[in-house]
TrEMBL record:
InterPro entries cross-referenced by the UniProt entry: Alkaline_phosphatase_core_sf (IPR017850), Phosphodiest/P_Trfase (IPR002591)
Protein name (Swiss-Prot/TrEMBL): Ectonucleotide pyrophosphatase/phosphodiesterase 5
Ranges annotated as spanning the membrane: 442-468
Phylogenetic placement of the source organism: Eukaryota, Metazoa, Chordata, Craniata, Vertebrata
Coiled-coil annotated residue ranges, if any: none
Length: 492
């Protein structure tokens, strides 16, 4: 009789505090678990948008109410250091891998790989060969391997089969497809029924890069182009609203690089300094990849090293370490870098542009815009500086996906987040690469495990105590010792 009373009082009484303890411990074990798992919420959504060549200061040049709205409702970063060389393909791949170009392998828009004996050009089908891309894995591949889904509207590389995978949903690259069509498809994918909806979207648009090249960024005609991009952003925001996604999706709007004004007076003609027969011209101005013919490296370098005060010639092994542009077989033995605003050509008869990019990534003119809003982001917050490679660990954090090894740091950028990750409180463990929580499989498993262990532990103790109570003497003492604890729990 006494035993049964104890059972009926103690069991629920003792167990409920255990469950409370479990509930308290669970978020400590994984900060993501409460948000994404206990309430059965789907994985947070993230849409990364790149307006090619949208320089950081374009937003202040004409009224850009939609960019401003994103900033007011979210965050803005003033100085975004992208990766060298400041070209389209290297930077788009860095954003989705967190790696410098020398590590992810897309070192330029035009490349030659001596090991493969193959050339890559963003203008030919060569770019569909996975071998160019597989020195890294983009975030959409990682998300999908983690059980998530991704959608891509023409992001460079997103229609290439990389590590055996395309994005879950994607569009074949076609520059003629309108921005509006791309947006509608993405919004459709993001708002599909939960078991089909994409978690991570990437959206690419060719402007204002194209106009920036043709007109030059200083042209007054650029004003209308920039205003037009702001309208496109407004269209995207409206479509998200119509689909009921605006408050759910974390929206990042950025770019790959800026744009510098060129001038026909600032042309460097290589033919004046070195015979064309001595080298192969691999990549275009303003950072020209020069591959000297067999045995001609020193001769070509000697001819170019002091050739023109507006151009620097590097042997590959002399490229400054801060540029992180050396350790890849696809980087040519000689690199020519023009000073800002200068163009390197073989002679003047080639096509000439009024705007270009590719120069040193610390030049202000090369840097892109960065604004973001959504549940993961703080509101009305301006951050001074970031590196574009830090975007990758940030996106992985938002998506609760474990990042692959990368060159970015969540620590550098986590102040953009509305709730800083647990790793932000100073801890001695690995400050450079804060631990990422693999919310999906890990949190529920750990939480359940702790709960089960606690319940089993209690039952074992309880059964022992009850059994032993029938043989008082020695065992009676342990019962007395544990009883106050249980009694206390009862009245918590
Ligand atoms: C590289 O490929 C070209 C054909 O594209 C061929 O002519 C050449 O011999 C190859 N070079 C080497 C070193 O295999
Ligand atoms: C590219 O898109 C345009 C506009 O939608 C279409 O007319 C054209 O057929 C497409 N080209 C290819 C190769 O699919
Ligand atoms: C410039 O180079 C092209 C070949 O790319 C050649 O046909 C042309 O004659 C050259 N022009 C001058 C002025 O040397
Ligand atoms: C960038 O990250 C990769 C992967 O962890 C690593 O192999 C490489 O050495 C890093 N580069 C630098 C400059 O730290
Ligand atoms: Zn670009």
């Amino acid at each position: 009789m006494a035993r049964r009373t104890m059972l009926s009082c103690l069991l629920p009484g003792a167990l409920s505090p255990l469950f409370c303890l479990w509930a308290v411990l669970l978020p400590v074990v994984s900060p993501n678990s409460l948000n994404h798992h206990e309430h059965q919420d789907p994985r947070p959504k993230l849409l990364l948008v790149s307006f090619d060549g949208f320089r950081w200061d374009y937003i202040d040049r004409v009224p850009t109410p939609n960019f401003r709205k994103v900033m007011d409702e979210g965050v803005k970063v003033e100085f975004v250091e992208n990766v060298y060389i400041t070209k389209t393909y290297p930077n788009h791949y860095s954003m989705v891998t967190g790696l410098y170009a020398e590590t992810h392998g897309i070192v330029a828009n035009e490349m030659y790989d001596p090991a493969l004996n193959l050339s890559f050009s963003m203008e030919t089908d060569s770019m569909y060969d996975p071998r160019w891309w597989e020195e890294a894995a983009p975030l959409w591949v990682t998300i999908q391997k983690d059980g998530g889904r991704s959608g891509a509207a023409m992001w460079p590389g997103s229609d290439v089969k990389i590590h055996g995978m395309f994005p879950t949903r994607y569009l074949q690259y076609n520059a003629s497809v309108s921005f509006e069509y791309r947006v509608r498809r993405l919004v459709e994918w993001l708002s599909a029924p939960e078991e089909e909806a994409v978690d991570f979207g990437v959206l690419y648009w060719e402007e204002p890069d194209e106009s920036g090249h043709n007109l030059g960024p200083q042209s007054p005609l650029m004003d209308a182009i920039i205003a037009g991009i702001d309208e496109k952003l407004g269209f995207l925001m409206d479509e998200l609203k119509k689909a009921g996604l605006y408050e759910k999706v974390n929206l990042i709007v950025t770019s790959d690089h800026g744009m510098a004004q060129l001038s026909p007076e600032k042309i460097i003609e290589l033919d004046e300094y070195v015979d064309r027969d001595l080298y192969t011209w691999v990549d275009k101005s303003p950072v020209v990849g020069i591959m000297p013919k067999e045995g001609k490296v020193d001769e070509v370098y000697g001819l170019l090293m002091d050739a023109n005060p507006n151009m620097v010639a590097y042997k590959k092994e002399e490229v400054p370490a801060r540029l992180h542009y050396q350790h890849n077989i696809r980087i040519t033995p000689i690199l020519l870098e023009a000073k800002e605003g200068w163009t390197i050509m073989q002679n003047r008869s080639g096509p000439f542009m009024l705007g270009n990019h590719g120069y040193d990534n610390t030049l202000r003119s090369m840097q892109p815009v960065f604004v973001a809003r959504g549940p993961a982001f703080r509101q009305n917050y301006v951050k001074t500086a970031m590196r574009s490679i830090d975007l990758y660990p940030l996106m992985c954090h938002i998506l609760s996906t474990r990042p692959l090894p990368n060159n970015g740091s969540l620590l550098n950028i986590q102040d953009l987040l509305s709730s800083e990750p647990a790793a932000s409180t100073p801890t001695p463990a690995h400050p450079a690469t804060p631990p990422e929580h693999h919310g999906y499989s890990y949190a529920p498993v750990v939480g359940s495990f702790i709960g089960v262990v606690m319940v089993l532990g209690f039952l074992v103790v309880y059964v022992l105590l009850v059994t032993l109570k029938q043989r008082p003497a020695l065992k009676h003492r342990s019962w007395e010792m544990s009883q106050p604890l249980l009694q206390e729990d009862l009245h918590l």
